[in-house]
Design a protein that fits this description.
Elements (H helix, E strand, L loop, with lengths): L15 H21 L19 H6 L4 H27 L4 H13 L3 H11 L1 H19 L5 H24 L2 H30 L7 H57 L2
Helix pairs in contact: 1-3, 3-8, 3-9, 4-5, 4-9, 5-6, 6-7, 6-9, 7-9, 8-9
Length: 270
């Protein structure tokens, strides 16, 4: 008899990154057009004129169409900074990771597997998830009589690697966006600078007296985009390094705990 099985529906699931980028772009365009481009920010209430003295909204608006692109990148950076702080915070767990690893080592020296599992349940986070998974494998291997000791040690080490490979992607997710914006922000700022300088030199090239308004607008466009691009890239770079350092620390803790588990099994099972 043929079993009636319904095919599974395959849906398209938007990732967080794919959702953030268009939303950030829309917000940046609205802010650029209606807040920075507000006529009250300019002389004669006309956005085509120079910005009022000391009015930074108007000054930034004069940076041209590159500004909303740079604003989009900056909003994306801030969004992913908050998202990674939350994600890595959850991955770290409720307590200090170093103390957690030391507690696991002490419990393993006493061959107290259940106590170690309870500590994992209290700690939570990526390191605790890996350790708990390996502890469960540890207990399974203790009951297995079909494998020799070397095979059990290999299986335990393999469990450490597999559990680690499941946890690390969640910690490293979206870091590539920050890494990309580190370079892209600088390049977009440089593009805006070049376009502004082209406008400035175009004003100087006019026959007779140079167009002072066009000259000032070109220089403003160049400087605003330079500042925006450098600031965006600098923020992305700083937090990218902060996050990778924290992830490296978690990875080291996982490796240390996994090594202790394998060594404990080797010691307690002659």
């Amino acid at each position: 008899m043929k079993k009636n099985s319904k095919p599974k529906k395959r849906g398209f699931k938007l990732s967080f990154a794919m959702l953030v980028i268009p939303v950030a772009l829309i917000v940046a365009i609205l802010v650029f057009k209606f807040i920075m481009g507000n006529p009250d920010n300019f002389q004669g209430n006309n956005p085509h004129n120079a910005a009022l003295p000391g009015n930074y909204y108007g000054i930034i608006y004069k940076g041209g169409f590159i500004v909303p692109i740079l604003m989009t990148l900056l909003l994306i950076v801030f969004t992913f900074i908050v998202e990674r702080i939350i994600a890595i915070g959850k991955g770290t767990g409720t307590g200090d990771v170093t103390e957690f690893v030391q507690d696991i080592k002490l419990l393993l020296e006493k061959n107290n597997i259940e106590g170690a599992k309870e500590v994992c349940n209290e700690q939570k986070g990526s390191v605790a998830n890996v350790v708990r998974s390996v502890l469960e494998k540890y207990q399974q291997l203790e009951k297995d009589t079909t494998l020799v000791k070397d095979q059990k040690l290999t299986a335990l080490q393999q469990e450490v690697e597999e559990a680690t490979s499941l946890e690390l992607p969640a910690l490293e997710q979206n870091l590539v966006v920050l890494a990309t914006i580190t370079s892209l922000g600088t390049l977009m700022g440089l593009l805006g600078t070049v376009l502004g300088m082209i406008r400035a030199f175009g004003a100087l090239a006019n026959a007779g007296a140079p167009d002072s308004v066009a000259l000032a607008q070109g220089i403003s466009e160049a400087l605003v985009n330079t500042a925006f691009g450098i600031a965006t890239a600098a923020i992305a770079l700083v937090f990218y390094n902060v996050f990778t350092t924290r992830i490296d620390k978690l990875t080291y803790s996982i490796d240390e705990a996994g090594f202790s588990l394998v060594q404990s099994y080797a010691t307690n099972h002659v």
